[in-house]
Amino acid sequence: MIDARKTLRLGAFMRPVSIHAGAWRYPGAWRDANFSFPRLSYLARKLEAGRFDAFFMADHLAVLNMGTEALRRSHTVTSFEPFTLLSALAAITSRIGLVATGSTSFDEPFHVARRFASLDHISEGRAGWNIVTTSNPDAALNFGLEEHLDHAERYRRAREFFDVVTGLWDSFADDAFPRDAASGTYLDPARMHVLAHQGEFFRVRGPLNIARPVQGWPVIVQAGASEPGRQLAAETAEVVFAAPNGLADARALYADVKGRMARIGRDPDHLKILPGAFVVVGASDEEAREKRDLLDSLVHDDNAIDSLSIALGHDARRFDPDAPLPEIPESNASKSGQARAIAIARAENLTVRQLARRFAGYAGLSFVGTPKTIADAMEEWLLSEGCDGFNVMFPYLPEGLDAFVDQIVPELQRRGLFRTEYEGRTLRENLGLPRPANRFF
Amino acid sequence: MIDARKTLRLGAFMRPVSIHAGAWRYPGAWRDANFSFPRLSYLARKLEAGRFDAFFMADHLAVLNMGTEALRRSHTVTSFEPFTLLSALAAITSRIGLVATGSTSFDEPFHVARRFASLDHISEGRAGWNIVTTSNPDAALNFGLEEHLDHAERYRRAREFFDVVTGLWDSFADDAFPRDAASGTYLDPARMHVLAHQGEFFRVRGPLNIARPVQGWPVIVQAGASEPGRQLAAETAEVVFAAPNGLADARALYADVKGRMARIGRDPDHLKILPGAFVVVGASDEEAREKRDLLDSLVHDDNAIDSLSIALGHDARRFDPDAPLPEIPESNASKSGQARAIAIARAENLTVRQLARRFAGYAGLSFVGTPKTIADAMEEWLLSEGCDGFNVMFPYLPEGLDAFVDQIVPELQRRGLFRTEYEGRTLRENLGLPRPANRFF
């Protein structure tokens, strides 16, 4: 019996197919995967065969790179909407978790609560909610807004949104539906709660018009690494999708967030910290590095500066590309993304152009090497409390994903670091998370 | 070769499983079908085996019957959200159309356009949008609103919402995505249109972040029978879900709407009028009537008055149950529902209680009898230009649906009134509707 605290949790991070801007140009890659439910079905089934915890669907609420040359190069311009995609995948899988990104910035809590509850019922308890606030100014323009809320206001709104959504999920006790044909009692109204929420941002009466989710609540996932993001995670998250710069940074984040949990009386085991990890596997470490180099070379120059602009929240085309990064004023961009870009530039003494190329491919944590090299690194991160597992990013599809499932998963299983069968039927059961009590019953 | 103009189109109207309040109490009925994706999968597959045009998912944005005794009796209190359900059904079917109800009252055009486009891609061209405006006051309270827009304003908003959604669907030409790896051109920006809509109710920049739907636009479905509803249908609808009181009424509606189309230069064949028809089949006409009587007897008294209240937009508990219906002032309720209730009460000289019982079961068009009796009626309606087909309501599940597919469909096929194989792959192809041109390319 493996000690559950010492095994990895693995999510698959599917940002319209791959996060890497060059992925669709890689030899043999499925260029049409963004349009193709059969392709995505293959990938989801393969991940389930590899016993992945979850298929994690990132999202944006606008075409990115608007008005730039990079638009022409970008495969993220078209993407399935997360709920429609994940519900369809629910019907053709049986165990893998299905995590949808849902923004609190331009939607109604009633709609969001209802869609997640429905996905959780349809998948028989496999839904997760990646709560994000949307900082992309292009998105605001699709919803009649010229200006975004500022960072602090976005987080206050996100917190209230979370409270309303979870309150709506608790509209019905688990025994609220006797469905007794003889007496004609379908519902026991005494086991139904009317939320009647009135807050700073929302007024929502309720109840939700769907039974409580199978998992009580879908699994709560967050990504913010800023100060309010960490506190919100410690209070509410069950999975954190982290983006540390290295193991030392990861260990600091791990200790910080789990420490915050302990201070407010939450069991630190009830939150799984999963850094995003870009994984390129080869028969030798050298072959893997060559694959990574080939992939990065497929990023078009147009993409590079624009990706950096998005990370910084400033137009990087105005900077001298061959000079060091200038001082960057505060903006409404994601604070963690901006801070990471600046940190990398300063730490490695990169020019704007060099930094831009890193950002256009993938600038975050990556493991490149043989299955043994990669398993060694993952084991070190796990055992040194740098993480509870990883949200894996595949460099190109299907080969990068197939290679992970066929080569790295067996190596992790051989070491006792990863499951060989799913432990339970729901995402919560597989992640080792408790089912939340209903606050009203 | 059957003349396509003389064959029936059949939709299956699935209002959380059945429209009839007594359906879940019928002997042998699936009481848990509202919670069960496997049950709904069975029903969708059976409808597809019966060559139905579409699975039509009605919707509400609130728990109905709030604060009344009928709440305890109502199986509509819990329901899957349409997009999550229909996407999951898309994955386990291949030909049947998937029509989701989408309200224009409490959602954003960008979200609605995107979900329908995604469902249309995932289903490979089988999506339809039932456009409704929401008049239920309980729904408004779930979205921070105390008062609904008035009837005229709701329709103006619906029309603008439609224009924005269809404009967003046209964001990309069909050839916008060359995905040419050699040159690094994924998208041709010259084949992308930025909508930049500014209207009375919405400001939406666009473009939509998903390729144009497979069908160009999902099939446009409407139900309103009021004066502005008919005009909106003639201008924009491709399927009308009608609720006539009888054949004469149906023929008048048919002639009116198709006449309006001709006057504005639309081909009247490009809109299919499908009255809702509640169908109870038996081995003899008498057995069928007994089934209907048993079903109606299973409606609890609590339901009756409350159903009437919803139809009228007034609390019918205040009326003398054994007196005729009093004069009803105008309200914000659906004008067509209110008018129908008043018309039935006056025409049949019903007391409030009698009228209430009719409304709680199903007060609209119904065909009750043997397969021959029902096919005779459907044939008469079709050939006398009362309709282009029906949106069938099943009295209880699965038996009522199984009986329709196993007994009535073969009788209709024998008469040459219904297809024996799907004509095409998309819902448009099966309905005989043209693919809309892209207004920008």
UniProtKB/TrEMBL annotation, chains A, B:
Residue span(s) of domain Luciferase-like: 27-381
Entry keyword Cell cycle: no
Pfam families per UniProt: Bac_luciferase
Residues annotated as binding FMN: D59, T101, H151, Y155, S226
Alphabetically ordered keywords of this record: Flavoprotein, FMN, Monooxygenase, Oxidoreductase
GO function terms (MF aspect): monooxygenase activity; oxidoreductase activity, acting on paired donors, with incorporation or reduction of molecular oxygen
Gene3D superfamilies registered for this protein in UniProt: Luciferase-like domain
Keyword Flavoprotein part of the UniProt annotation: yes
InterPro entries: Diverse_substr_monoxygenases, Luciferase-like_dom, Luciferase-like_sf, NTA_MOA
CDD domains referenced in this protein's UniProt entry, alphabetically: Nitrilotriacetate_monoxgenase
Family under the similarity heading: Belongs to the NtaA/SnaA/DszA monooxygenase family.
Protein name: Monooxygenase
Lineage: Bacteria, Pseudomonadati, Pseudomonadota, Alphaproteobacteria, Hyphomicrobiales
